[in-house]
Design goal:
Largest sheet: 7 strands, antiparallel
Strand order of the largest sheet: 10-11-12-13-9-15-18
Number of strands: 18
Helix content: 25-40%
Distance between the termini: 8 Å
Radius of gyration: 23 Å
Number of domains: 2
Number of helices: 12
């Protein structure tokens, strides 16, 4: 599994401003202005349900702009100093983390703010600029991550437009706590009894559904794959043999369709929760390889990213359509990881990686739907997945040895398509149920393997709460 430090490293390698990621050139927390910027950013990210403050990049060009030496940086932004400021000025005490990522003879600090906000966070102490006496932060101010006119993310004082999302985030976290309490105090049998009592009184979502080969989302899956093949052919590259994972997401109804502009990509980039360092449907506009940058074709954005080097191997194709259609195809991580502990290509499938990737795809698709101003009360996202190249693989936990599987389970079937549907207002705490719906048929190919609900829920929670 990519641990948190690896995810942080990828944030630095691919810096992008988003609702969950704030970029700044530097913070001098020995000054009142620097403290003010830090407090505002941390309050805003906490109210966003967590995120990252990445330092050392120009927030306009995303070019590195840090000149201090590593030791000075570590001293100036020591965790004790940062935590002391949080405790002093933020209304709720929570633990932040400070990472120092070294890359290309530079060091970039990243401050991680945890998820789990249950009531809006505000400033609890006034902060004045001692030089001029100007008030930088008043008592009781609430800051949030919000969108500017061009759909780029920024930190600002909360306005009436921000309250709906802020309260929704708080309620989602409270619902998650209730769900965990029930799971912790009821046995499996008791949960089944409770479920039976609730059937008919509440809609139970996430049940297995039969895949309709003629449904719009399946047609989108096939059309996306055709576009991938055309793009690879046009690029003129020969790809190695590997298995693939595809995802198609269709959000409806479309309330405010837009055009294939930079503002549309800004909106998606800001909405993407960036749960991993290399998120699904990432924005590759800043890629150093120009061939990896997005382009417009057939009224949609496409991007083909191919890296077959010795240090980083990745194959990915994506489509982002303003009409609410999204497609993604990736080489299986099991086949392209350049590591001594990785298995030979086309031999294994790590079940943990699959749970994480499917959950992330669901979370990002829902975030896109909400970000594109679909009506949350009516909005639905249909998602289809396809795994190819499964035949002959063994189901393992090679990237997650702490989740060791004792049985040797092998798949015969080479390809499978699954699907799930969910409304845009479904609480994050229930995403694991839809992940289970999408993955259960896949795992069953491996000699009938069944993954327990507790593992689905635990892995999904770790991802959504940024605890990997």
């Amino acid at each position: 599994m990519d641990d948190e430090s690896e995810s942080i490293r990828r944030l630095v390698l691919n810096p992008q401003e988003a609702l969950a990621v704030e970029i700044k050139s530097w913070l001098d927390i020995e000054t009142d202005k620097g403290v003010g910027k830090l407090v505002k950013a941390i309050i805003a990210l906490r109210n966003n349900n967590g995120g990252y403050l990445v330092l050392g990049f120009d927030d306009a060009t995303m070019e590195p702009c840090i000149s201090k030496d590593a030791e000075t940086i570590r001293q100036e932004l020591h965790i004790d100093k940062v935590q002391r400021i949080v405790t002093q000025y933020v209304s709720e005490i929570f633990e932040v983390k400070v990472y120092f990522v070294e890359t290309e003879n530079r060091i970039h600090p990243v401050i991680a703010v945890p998820t789990g906000v249950k009531t809006p966070i505000a400033s609890k102490k006034e902060l004045k600029d001692q030089n001029g006496g100007k008030v930088i932060i008043n008592v009781g101010e609430i800051f949030v991550r919000t969108l500017n006119a061009n759909n780029t993310a920024s930190t600002a004082r909360a306005s009436w437009r921000d309250w709906n999302k802020l309260i929704e985030v708080c309620f989602d976290n409270r619902e998650a706590d209730i769900g965990k309490f029930i799971s912790r105090h009821l046995s499996g049998a008791s949960l089944e009894v409770l479920r039976d009592v609730l059937v008919g009184a509440l809609p139970i979502e996430g049940e297995p559904t039969e895949v309709d080969s003629d449904s719009p989302v399946i047609r989108l899956l096939d059309a996306g794959n055709s576009r991938f093949e055309d793009a690879v052919k046009k690029r003129g590259v020969s790809l190695p043999d590997f298995g693939t994972w595809e995802c198609a997401a269709k959000v409806s109804p479309v309330s405010t369709p837009t055009q294939t502009t930079d503002e549309f990509l800004n909106l998606l980039t800001s909405a993407n929760p960036r749960l991993t360092g290399w998120p699904v449907w990432l924005d590759s506009r800043g890629a150093s390889d120009k061939d990896s940058r997005p382009y417009v074709l057939n009224s949609a954005w496409e991007a083909l990213i191919i890296s077959l080097g010795s240090e980083w191997r990745h194959v990915e194709f994506m489509i982002k359509d303003p009409r609410g259609d999204f497609y993604l195809k990736r080489a299986l991580q099991d086949d392209v990881t350049p590591s001594a502990y990785a298995p030979p290509p086309n031999t294994q499938l790590d079940f943990v990686l699959q749970v994480l990737r499917v959950t992330e795809a669901i979370a990002v698709a829902v975030a896109f739907g909400k970000g594109m101003s679909y009506e949350s009360d009516d909005g639905i996202v249909q998602i289809a997945f396809r795994w190819s190249g499964l035949g002959g693989r063994e189901l393992t936990a090679w990237a997650n040895p702490e989740r060791y599987l004792s049985d040797h389970r092998t798949a015969v079937q080479d390809e499978i398509i699954t699907s799930t549907n969910l409304s845009l207002n479904v609480p994050q705490a229930t995403y694991w149920q839809y992940t289970k719906e999408a993955l259960s048929p896949v795992f069953a190919l491996f000699d009938g393997f069944i993954l327990s609900d507790r593992v689905y829920e635990d892995l999904a929670s770790r991802l959504l709460e940024r605890r990997l």
